[in-house]
Design goal:
Order of helices and strands: HEEEEEEHEEEEEEEH
Largest sheet: 13 strands, antiparallel
Radius of gyration: 20 Å
Helix content: 10-25%
Strand content: over 45%
Length: 226
């Protein structure tokens, strides 16, 4: 990390090994069809089978959140960019999980407002095609390795570059517990390796719950004692 970030450190940092986490990076995707139990989507990155993702649908200015499990995924075609490059397009089937009554009502209102009047019969219920494209994002869990950590931030290594000053919801896995933290990317520097370019990034912790703060404090205390 740069000297500027070192000067702003509020807490002592400790070098660690074996600690990993995920960054939920939001990207655009195309919603093909949807029902109360699942959806078909298209993305430029293949979603991992049997992995949970967090979806957000903007319905009349109100974000509708749902967690979904990817049950199938396949390459369907390629699209050319303005530069002439071909980008692969994947289509995936998602099964919604943890949908409570209030969320289901909002979801069905969204379906009714945006569906084509020729619904498809699918296993698991009626599925409707979307009449007009909607803005929808999915959180890709990009994995990172923690190199240093303190109570106010950490230094991580990842294969995906993130813009300085951008904010992201991050998962930090400590002692088999998943801690959810909002972090700000302070620095991002490419580090060439044998097979690919990796990135060292400085992350400032911005938001965390009281429970997460206590778990992090306990973990830092164990590092001080060792």
């Amino acid at each position: 990390m740069g000297e500027g970030f070192d000067d702003r450190r509020r807490c002592k940092r400790y070098g660690i090994k074996g600690i990993r986490g995920n960054v939920r990076f939001l990207v655009d995707l195309k919603l093909i069809n949807i029902s109360a139990v699942g959806a078909a989507i298209e993305t430029s990155k293949r979603l991992d089978l049997n992995r949970e993702y967090k979806f957000m649908i903007d319905y009349k200015g109100t974000p509708l959140e749902a967690r979904g499990l990817v049950v199938w995924s396949q390459l369907v075609h390629g699209e050319k960019t303005k530069e002439g490059d071909v980008v692969p397009i994947y289509r995936s089937g998602v099964k919604f999980i943890d949908i409570v009554d209030e969320k289901t009502i909002k979801l069905m209102n969204f379906v009714e407002d945006n569906r084509v009047r020729t619904p498809e019969r699918r296993l698991g219920g009626l599925r409707c095609k979307i009449a007009t494209p909607q803005d929808i994002t999915v959180g890709y869990p990009y994995e990172y390795l923690v190199k240093k950590i303190s109570f106010s931030g950490m230094e991580i290594e990842t294969e995906h570059a993130l813009d300085p000053d951008s904010r992201h919801e991050m998962e930090l896995i400590l002692n088999d517990k998943v801690l959810t933290i909002t972090g700000r990317i302070v620095t991002c520097m490419g580090v060439p390796s044998e097979k690919t370019v990796k990135y060292d990034m400085g992350v400032e912790f911005l938001e965390m719950s009281a429970d997460v703060r206590e778990l992090l404090r306990h973990f830092i205390d164990t590092l001080e004692e060792s």
